[in-house]
Amino acid sequence: MASKAYFFSKDILGGLLSGAAWRAAHLRMIVVGALMLREVHTRYGRDNLGFLWLIAEPMLFCLGVVAVWSATKPPHEHGIPVLAFVMTGYIPFFLWRHCVFRSVLCFRANGSLLYHRQVGIMDFLVARILLEIYGSIVTFALIAFVFGLADMYTVPEDLGLFFLGWTLMILYSAGLAIILACLSEMYDWVEKLVAPSTYLIMPISGAFFMVDWLPYWLQKYALLVPSVNAYEILRAGQFGSGVRVHYDLYYTLFVCLLLITIGLVLTRSVRRHVEVE
What we know:
mainly alpha; 10 helices; globular; transmembrane; ABC-type transporter activity; ABC_2_transport; polysaccharide transport; ABC2_TM
């Protein structure tokens, strides 16, 4: 009987722990969801298009780049459709750039909300990153759907690689965003460097070239940039056997997880730098 009572008690304890974990996760979801709505209203207002600007903004940028490339380049570049190439290049870069840009001083801008016991410091950043992910993915899906109806875009040949490329880009963006969010609170000069750095990084990000187009001696150096690997994987999924790709999956995954780990470690010390008004 004692043995049965012991195992019964363990089952109850396990159920309570799992229930508590679920309630904590549910609370985080509610808090992050509320912060996402607050961020949208703060950023775009409640009038006119409102939250639709979250999708309209990257869409306008992407269509502008598509228009320029279509006007200045042939329909196929290195045997690849220009439209699909730009879509798989600029929209993920827009995601990366805005995750990084929106992370700067993210904690300071929302510091007054830390008076609420349920709100954690990482909730602010998670809300902003999720907004950028949502806006970029929905933008890609809408543009792909419209151009697909006009037979100007075809669905990816390998959806597994396609989504893997997107996932790596999201992880890379999130890792850098967490680190820069912390560093911008600790050091004022970080804020000044972020905006110009995002433009300087664009040429080497892999958004507008493929590794196979580079000289052989340069390819190994290009693959040191995590986003280049993510783009290669994404385009391997989009174009399939129509392109020759080069990437190192394990290296890219390691760097992404390392960046996230460093960022999470920094969040443990950034709290004292955030002023609660």
